[in-house]
């Protein structure tokens, strides 16, 4: 402490105040927007048009993980830096479980998006046998397997993390360096690389399919003498692919700062750092989580912008659940009209035939 000058103390105080204000207002807004967006996304993907789509199932699972992430990891970060509630320093097991759940939920949110990109690549393949793997049954199995896999992998967090120097960090030494390198690859480089690879492969297949529709794996029986239309299914798939590609682009740009800082931390592990530098690094580390959480929070906005079907289902929910109005199709050629749920539709039809 004797090496700390008055200038260092003033700098540290300024950094603390800035860190606190940014955490309260920026992270706070992300927490609110993320919770609302994740809940609405989950509701929309439980609607009939999306319910059996494997890609939508992956999106739903990712949104559920994001919702838990906001209300555990992000909320804890807001309490720690915004309200100076040092919960992780009070209990060793809370320190371990906090970061275990942080990495577990973040991995599930990211790798479910990656599984969705794999599904879109398979679904857009020319090979009919390969397209059979794009199914809701496969999606449910992959989601469960993905969750179990990362739950086992991140047990190492419980082993390596400990409370020291008023913080919760990996154990110093060789194990700490190993874990920092592992997290840099697994939590940063690998997801971005997989998203980029399967995103490009999917885009390539979509362009190849532009002038030609891929034949479905099976054909349903004709309904009313007319074949079941494949156009709507293809249109939904194209919109899901657009939603996915846009989500990958957002993730690629907003997930870069955090792994870059992790690389810096790994390189400078054995470097002497002053108190002011340590405080500055803590501030920068906290700031790298802004684009990371923002990327998750923008999921709902991305889907609203990317897909007319997603927007239509969202507005239908607003009409039926909040405004208490029921969409009624009066005739084959009539547009869909919305009437108050308490009115009698039969009366309207009777008036039309008088």
Automatic annotation (TrEMBL):
Transmembrane spans: 22-45, 57-79, 99-118, 139-161, 181-203, 244-264, 284-305
Keywords from the UniProt entry: G-protein coupled receptor, Membrane, Receptor, Transducer, Transmembrane, Transmembrane helix
GO CC terms: plasma membrane
Localization (cell): Membrane
Molecular-function annotations in GO: G protein-coupled receptor activity
Domain G-protein coupled receptors family 1 profile: 37-306
Bilayer topology: Multi-pass membrane protein
PANTHER family reported in the protein's UniProt record: G-PROTEIN COUPLED RECEPTOR, G-PROTEIN COUPLED RECEPTORS FAMILY 1 PROFILE DOMAIN-CONTAINING PROTEIN
Protein name: G-protein coupled receptors family 1 profile domain-containing protein
Organism listed in the record: Adineta ricciae (Rotifer)
Lineage: Eukaryota, Metazoa, Spiralia, Gnathifera, Rotifera
């Amino acid at each position: 402490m004797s090496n700390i000058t008055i200038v260092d103390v003033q700098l540290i105080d300024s950094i603390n105040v800035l860190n606190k204000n940014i955490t309260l207002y920026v992270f706070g807004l992300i927490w609110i927007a993320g919770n609302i967006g994740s809940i609405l996304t989950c509701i929309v993907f439980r609607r009939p048009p999306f319910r059996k789509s494997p890609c939508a199932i992956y999106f739903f699972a990712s949104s559920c993980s994001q919702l838990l992430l906001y209300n555990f990891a992000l909320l804890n970060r807001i309490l720690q830096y915004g309200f100076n509630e040092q919960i992780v320093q009070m209990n060793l097991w809370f320190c371990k479980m906090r970061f275990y759940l942080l990495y577990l939920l973040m991995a599930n949110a990211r790798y479910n998006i990656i599984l969705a990109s794999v599904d879109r690549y398979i679904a857009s393949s020319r090979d009919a046998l390969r397209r059979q793997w794009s199914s809701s049954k496969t999606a449910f199995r992959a989601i469960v397997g993905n969750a179990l896999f990362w739950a086992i992998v991140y047990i190492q967090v419980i082993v390596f993390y400990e409370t020291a120097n008023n913080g919760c960090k990996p154990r110093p030494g060789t194990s700490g360096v190993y874990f920092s390198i592992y997290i840099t690859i697994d939590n940063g480089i690998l997801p971005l690389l997989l998203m980029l690879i399967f995103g490009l492969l999917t885009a390539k297949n979509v362009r190849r399919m532009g002038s030609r529709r891929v034949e479905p794996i099976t054909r349903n029986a004709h309904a009313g003498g007319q074949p079941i239309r494949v156009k709507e299914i293809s249109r939904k798939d194209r919109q899901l692919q657009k939603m996915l590609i846009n989500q990958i682009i957002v993730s690629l740009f907003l997930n870069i700062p955090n792994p870059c800082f992790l690389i810096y931390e790994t390189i400078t592990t054995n470097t002497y750092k002053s108190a002011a530098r340590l405080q500055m690094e803590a501030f920068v580390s906290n700031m790298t989580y802004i684009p990371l959480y923002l990327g998750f929070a923008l999921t709902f906005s991305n889907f609203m912008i990317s897909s007319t079907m997603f927007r239509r289902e969202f507005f239908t929910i607003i009409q039926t659940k909040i405004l208490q109005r029921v969409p009624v199709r009066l005739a084959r050629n009539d547009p869909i009209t919305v009437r108050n749920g308490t009115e009698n539709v039969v009366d309207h039809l009777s008036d039309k035939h008088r």
